[in-house]
Design a protein that fits this description.
alpha+beta; CPE0013-like fold; 2 domains; 3-stranded antiparallel beta sheet; about 35% strand; elongated; Molybdopterin oxidoreductase; CPE0013-like_sf; DUF1667
């Protein structure tokens, strides 16, 4: 019998949920609510995370704009998504909520700006 443990992150209780696997059957214990059980099943079978990083801005007041996915993406696609975003440059100005990449890696998630970046004032160059 294989056992794995995770700490639930849905609420401050932080229940320790254990998955016991024998063949193709799973048993979950330690969850304090139905939401915790649902989260644990998802975490063990298809873990997802919100991706946060930065994207280069051309002619911006600052060189990078912080971005995030609007929904969690599969954990196994995080590094591939980061590689794609490293090669992207957006033109200032950038508004909060601007979609930088739509449906990244066919995950259904959009990468959106989380800060406004104005255009660089070129009169001081």
């Amino acid at each position: 019998m294989q056992k794995n443990k995770v700490t639930c992150i849905l609420c401050p209780r932080g229940c320790t949920i254990e998955k016991k696997a024998q063949g193709d059957t799973f048993e979950f214990t330690g969850f304090g609510c139905k939401r915790g059980m649902k989260w644990a099943k998802e975490e063990f079978t298809n873990p997802k995370r919100i991706l946060t990083t930065t994207v280069h801005v051309k002619n911006g007041e600052i060189d990078f704009v912080p971005v995030r996915t609007n929904i969690p993406i599969p954990k196994e696609k995080i590094f591939e998504a980061i590689s794609i975003l490293k090669g992207i440059e957006v033109l200032a100005p950038v508004e909060i909520g601007s979609v930088i990449v739509k449906n990244i890696l066919d995950t259904g998630a959009d990468v959106v700006a989380t800060r406004r970046v104005g255009k660089k004032d070129s009169s001081y160059d």
